[in-house]
Design brief:
By secondary structure, this protein is mainly beta. It has helices at residues 38-45, 72-83, 159-165, and strands at 8-11, 15-20, 63-69, 88-96, 103-112, 120-122, 128-140, 145-152, 191-199, 206-210. The chain folds into 2 domains: 8-86 and 198-210, Pseudouridine synthase (2-Layer Sandwich); 90-191, Pseudouridine synthase, CATH 3.30.2350.10. Strands 1, 2, 3, 4, 5, 6, 7, 8, 9 and 10 form a 10-stranded mixed β-sheet that branches.
Length: 215
């Protein structure tokens, strides 16, 4: 049996919450070979979907919960929640290295490195500040790895990946990170969007969803 186009966690006439697999783009890339994405698959599963649909994005190698609006009003309401930081999200990751602190907050500014797109670099002058809360879930001294829960309070590009890897952050790259760590350290980026809490764009009801961590 072939894989479904989308792994649907929740759906109604207004929105859908998907469990994006690692390796699938959120939106198409510029190259024609990179057209397959959540954005191009959604209308094939939800024919009534119109206009912009992505309320937010996940990096291609990141797996987990992604919410889309199935009509312009729903999309607009969802986007406003993300912009107002009214959406609660948690991610789980496995880091290469042992994190000393049990919990804490990382506040670091990054910006795009225009000579190495899409790489982000630390820039305390021109960078945009990202804020990430973290909690250590488990340390494995033998494997020299740490499992953590991330709760991002902002949504900067590559925020969790840079905050994990940079020496001023945790100094422990996410396993399998081809941009900020060692791609050979895991078969994929070990970062998963595990929980999502958001207000329904029409009813206002709070939706709390979760996705099992696949690693």
């Amino acid at each position: 049996m072939s894989e479904p186009l989308l792994h649907i966690v929740y759906a109604d006439d207004d929105l859908a919450v998907l469990d994006k697999p690692s390796g699938l783009l959120s939106c198409p890339g510029r190259d024609p070979s990179l057209c397959d994405s959540v954005q191009t698959r959604v209308p094939r599963v939800f024919p009534h979907a119109t206009g912009s649909i992505l309320a937010h994005r996940l990096d291609q190698p990141t797996s987990g919960l992604l919410v889309v609006g199935l009509h312009p009003a729903a999309h607009r309401a969802l986007r406003l929640q993300f912009e107002a930081r009214a959406v609660a999200k948690t991610y789980e990751a496995v880091l290469t290295g042992l994190v000393d602190q049990d919990e804490g907050v990382i506040t670091l500014p990054f910006r795009l490195d225009v000579e190495r797109r899409p790489h982000q670099i630390y820039d305390p002058i021109h960078g945009k500040v990202g804020v990430t809360r973290f909690t250590v879930l488990h340390r494995d001294p033998d494997a020299h790895r740490t499992r953590v829960r991330f709760c991002p309070e902002t949504g900067r590009t590559h925020q969790l990946r840079t905050h994990a890897a940079h020496p001023l952050g945790l100094g422990c790259p996410i396993a399998g990170d081809a941009l900020y760590g060692d791609p050979a350290s895991a078969p994929r980026l070990l970062l998963h969007a595990a929980t999502l809490s958001i207000a329904h764009p029409t009813t206002g009801e709070r939706l709390a969803l979760q996705s099992p961590v696949p690693f």
